Each structure stands twice: as C-alpha cells, then as structure tokens.
Amino acid sequence: MSALAHVAGDPGLEPAAAAPEVKRRSWTAYLLMLPGVLWLAIFFLLPLVQLASVSLQSRYPGFPGYYYRDLNFSNYASALTDYAPHFARSFLYAGLATFLAFAVAYPLAYAMAFKAGRWRNLMMICVIAPFFTSFILRTFAWSQILADEGWVAGVLNFLHLLPNGHIINTPIAVVAGLTYNFLPFMVLPIYASLERADPRVIEAGGDLYANGFTTFRTVTLPISMPGVLAGTLLTFIPAAGDFVNMELLGPQRGKMIGNVINDQFLAVPGGYPVAAALSFTLMAAILVLVFLYIRRFGTEELV
C-alpha cells in the first residue's frame, strides 16, 4: 500500500519528509542570530539597565562621592531644568553641523557618483582617509588650524570678518570641528544612494523638457533621500552627544551636554546619578527627534 502511495505521489507523505529539513533550517537561523543577540545583551542591554539603576540613586547626605540605591526621580527633574540650556546648545550646534555637512557632502557625493569617472576611487580614498587618524588628533589639529596665528584667522581678519579677532574658542570653531569630523558619515550614504541610481531615469527628466533644477528636485533628490536621511542621522546623533570638539575648540563657558555628562562622571564627586540621568534624557530626546524626523521626511525603506 505504501509503495502504491509513493508511486501515486500521495501528497500526505511530503510534509512528513520535509519536516526535519524545515526544523533544521529554523535552528540554523537562530544559531546565526545568537552571536549578535549575545553581543547586544552583554554590551548594550546590561549596561543600559545598570545606567538606568544608577540614574535613580541618591547621594548620602554629608558624604560626597557616596550614593545608595533608591527611586530618586529628582535626578531627571534636575536634568530637564538645570541643564536645559546645555541640551539646547548641543542640538543647535549639531543641527548647524548637520546642515553644513549636507551642503558640502551632497555636491561631493553627486560628483563622485556621476562626474568623477576614473577619479572616483581617489575621491573615495580622500573621504575615508580621515578615519585612519584618531578623532582626538584630528580635532586637536583643527585647534592649530584655527589658532589666532593660523592662516584661517589671518585671512578672516584681513577681510574684517572676525569681530573679536579670533575664531578659536568660539561656537564657530565648534561647529566647524563637528562638521569636519562627521562629514564622511554624510558623504558615504548619499554617495551609495546616488551610485545605485539608474542614470537613464535622471536623463528622462531632460527628455521630458525639464530644466536641470526641476530634474534635480523631482528625480535626483527623491532617489537619494534614503542616503540623505541616513547621513543626517549618522551626523546629528553623534554630534549632539560629542564633547571633544567643545573641549578643544570651544569657549570655557557654555558647554554642550556631552561635556556636562563627562564632568559629572569624572570631576564631580557623587555625580554618577545625575550623569546617568542626563545620558538617559539625551538618549530619549534624540529618539523622539529621530522618530519625528523619519515620520516627516522618511521613506518606506526607513520607516
């Protein structure tokens, strides 16, 4: 009977024969996910839980540097009230740096994708080359470039464009440093989107008698929007939490929130709870801004 069923191609036998293979495939998928899940659990989730626990602790009265486990939500109230100007300054500088990076990166990425030809690889190397140097060393080099005796300040003073006579230790220097340090994060995603675009689609705009600006606005820019969105997020998020540029290029007063968190962790006795609350508040604020940004300008690839 079983032989007849096999010859007749009884469909009832196929699922039973295929079940071990399906089960094997499902276990393979879980095993492939295991290293990534363990990495996230150990180096992201556990530190995040520890940070949340620290953010709710309280200081021992009269014992600087000591604190105990508690549910002290006043740390978050302090983060939202005492340090609101630092949050605003961080988002302002990060927003300006993101805009300037986009203004520089888009023409560069466009030229690399459509106009560079055999120079494309060299231009790509020039974009990536700063990553071969330490972030701190690059920022320190900018402190020398923007120094009062440097050629940048000399040219701007000659043109009477510096009211105070110097550019170092000013917000301008901080924004310039942020723009330079995070510029590759803007260039590469935009270039990747433009490089995948079909040139015939862009040429079709000219065939339909659209001028260059109309073709760019209606065809090229929408095609590159996934790269633009990824680039702006990759630039804005680290720039908002950065403290190195303000420390080396900015004024002594009016620090960014990253500098406050660093000082609370390293310089203020018993400042761990406030620093942890500031870190969580910064993370929550960035998540809200990113969510609103993607909902407003996002595409199906990012939502």
UniProtKB/TrEMBL annotation:
Q: In the UniProt record, does the keyword Cell membrane occur?
A: yes
Per UniProt, subcellular location reads as:
Cell membrane
Membrane topology term reads: Multi-pass membrane protein
For this protein, the record's PROSITE patterns field holds: ABC_TM1
Establish whether keyword Membrane is in the entry.
yes
User: Where does it mainly reside?
Assistant: membrane
ABC transmembrane type-1 domain residues are: 87-293
One Pfam annotation reads BPD_transp_1
Transmembrane portions of the chain: 29-49, 91-110, 122-147, 167-192, 219-241, 272-294
| Keyword list, A-Z | Cell membrane, Membrane, Transmembrane, Transmembrane helix, Transport
As for family, the record states: Belongs to the binding-protein-dependent transport system permease family. CysTW subfamily.
According to UniProt, the name of this protein is ABC transporter permease
What species was this sequence derived from?
Nocardioides pini
